[in-house]
Each structure stands twice: as structure tokens, then as C-alpha cells.
Amino acid sequence: MAKDSPRKFIPSRAFYEYFLRPILNQDEGVDPEQLTQAALTALRQASIHRHWSGMSWLLELLTQDLQRQDRRLMQKLFGCHFNNPIGLAAGFDKNGVAAGIWDYFGFGFAELGTVTWHPQAGNPRPRLFRLAAEKGAINRMGFNNNGAQIMRRTLERQSLNNPGQRTTVIGLNFGKSKITPLDQAPEDYASSLELLAPLADYAVINVSSPNTPGLRDLQNSAQLRQLVKRLRRLEGCPPLLVKIAPDLNNDAIDGIARIAYQEGLAGIIAVNTSVDRLGLEKRVISQTGLTLKEEKGGLSGAPLRERAVEVIRRLRTTTGPDIPLIGVGGIDSPQAAWERLTAGASLIQIYTGWIFQGPILVPQILDGLIDQLNQYGFSHISEAIGSEVPWR
């Protein structure tokens, strides 16, 4: 279809409202994992064939609907140029099947994975549950992914530009294979990173998922330091960040901040999902009949917002302004995004909020940030970061 043909399409927001919103407004119904896989199947084809005339026309329409361009939102952090501060969090595109098209959705960056060296099926199903009323989710996926070797082939098939030459920054999130003993974790991570480093703008050490037994033990200062040292010895190691849990106490958060300084980490991502139920202990999941207190898995989405802000604020106080922070957890509105940035995050990531609100959330947040910059007379987003100025 030619680009100058009349637009005969359903805008992303309308499609979401009419077709997906009714599904997302209830806990039961279409299984959330099946819904995600259906979306990824379509996105995979779109990414592979994005240069075909018909597909490129559709993606251009998507761009017009969802992208925003404003130089005040651009930043250069740990050697990467970000067109805007909003990223897709790890966990959605686990295998990198849509790496070539996340910029069309308005994202300034996308984090792919979590990927492990060994392919793994993850935990038994059901393992992902909507909390529709709370705009949250419980997941115990268990790093289900095709493994690092298949991810490399998947990314290469999409003919991506080289790192540093892309319109959207691509980060890769790495985890420990379940079958790998904890004392061999550094080599497991190193195998994946060494293979995929040439394709990554930045890399993330995921030591904070609650769904792989023993993984969070790697947040211990001694073990994390050993892991970071091993990975930074790799030739061509990209900027290296660590992703931490929201359930750490202040001493542990401060310890990770010190390691980031001492070992040359490029940044810290806060936070992953929580094993704390944050006041929802008695909430029942209808599919299993269990309360959240009884149900295993990590809590994400709006219930995590307050704790996620606290962790970012603590990290910013401890690290000062020199180490970039990426805020994630419970960001589902322009106000929540502004709150995270002014608490000290240089970048933010969305996932659960993006699922519930739809693709329109990205331009809504960007429009909201631009409006706040205008109201405060800020010439650049960097003036807002850590400023603690309230939402107006």
C-alpha cells in the first residue's frame, strides 16, 4: 500500500480501548501469558518485515500516533544517546523478537530479556496473573527464554544497526540459568554476555528476580562484587548496570551503591518485582483461590509505586548525581513518571502500566513531561532530575 493512500486504520488507542480494555479490566478471561505471546508473534513479524512497503506504511502511521520529538528530552548517558527517557522494561520481549520496532512505539530505549545461557521453560503455568482493580500483576515466570545463542540469531535476523547507530537504545538483561549452581553464576552470566555484547548498547545484571531460587543472594556485596569484576573483564563489555529488588533494606541499598562506584558500574536500575504484598496480602487470585500472601511470585504495577520511589530517592542520596539511575515499578501516568525523575532517576521504564494503559501511555507521559518542563521554565530534562519539584 502506498504511503499517500488514505489512512484506513484503527489508531492504537482506539484498538486498545475497544478490543483489549475489556479483557484487561478483569482478572479472569483471556490468559495474560497467552495474550502476551499473541502480541509478540505479531510484533516479531512486524520487526522482521519492517522494511516491506505495506508494513513500513503501517509502522509510519504508528509512529505518527505515538512518537514525540523534543530536544529537551534527549540525554547522553553511559555513552548512549537517548531520544527520550522512557524505556520498555525487561520481561516483555524476553527473546528480542521485536527489537527492530520499539522506536515506532515511541520508546527512547528498550531492554530485552531476561536471557540466560541455557534455554529454559520457566516455572509451571499458570504463572502470570492480572490484578485488574489494582492495576498490578503477580508473575513467577522463572526466566523462561530461548537462551543466549538463539537470542543472538534472533537479533541478527532483524538486521539491526550497530550499537550507537540506532534510533532506539537496546539494552540486554542477563540472568542466571536455573540449573547453574550459585557458585558458578559468574561464568554463566559471562558466557551469555560475551556472546551478545556486540549487539548491546548496554547490559544489565539481573540479580533481583524472586522467581529463580537463590538468585537474590547475588545482591550480597561480596557475591555481587565478584560477579561485576568477572563481567567487566570481558573484552568489549558494554556499559554494565545492575537491577535491584525493592525488598532490600537501606544498608543493602547503600552497599550496592558503593559497589557501583568502586567497580565502575554504569548505572543502577530500581526496582524489580516485590515479594512484599504491600497491603494486598488478603487479596484473592480467583484462578487459584489463594491469597497474595499465599501465592508465590513477584508483585508489579501500581502497588509498587511508593516503594519504588523510596528506593530511587535512597540511591540518589547515596550515589550523588554521578551514577545514572533508571526508575521502574508502578509508572502508569505522566505524574508517576515525573515523580520518579524528580526523585533522582535519569530514565524510566514501563511494563505493567503500559499493558494496562496501552501504547498511548508513552506519548501521554512524554507530553506530560514536556508540559512540566514548560511550567517550570526548564530548558532540559536534566534540570528536573533529582529536583524534587512537585507535579503541577
What does this structure look like?
By secondary structure, the protein is of the alpha/beta class. Strands 3-4-7-8-9-10-14-15 form an 8-stranded parallel beta barrel, surrounded by 6 helices. The protein contains 11 helices and 15 strands. The relative contact order is 0.13. The protein is globular. It has a single domain (12-383), classed as TIM Barrel.
Write out key terms for the chains shown:
alpha/beta, eight-stranded parallel β-barrel, three-stranded antiparallel sheet, TIM Barrel, 15% strand, 15 strands, 11 helices, 392 residues, 35% helix, disordered N terminus
Summarize the structure.
The protein has 392 residues and is of the alpha/beta class. It contains eleven helices and 15 strands.
β-strand percent reads 15-25%
What is CATH's topology name?
TIM Barrel
Average predicted confidence as pLDDT: 95
Structure summary, number of beta strands:
15
Ranges where pLDDT stays below 50 over 5 or more residues in a row are 1-9
Helix content: 25-40%
What is the CATH homologous superfamily assignment? Aldolase class I
How many separate domains make up the residues? 1
- Biggest sheet layout: 8 strands, parallel, barrel
Helix and strand sequence:
HHHEEEEEEHEHEHEHEEEEHEHEHH
Strand line-up in the sheet with most strands: 3-4-7-8-9-10-14-15
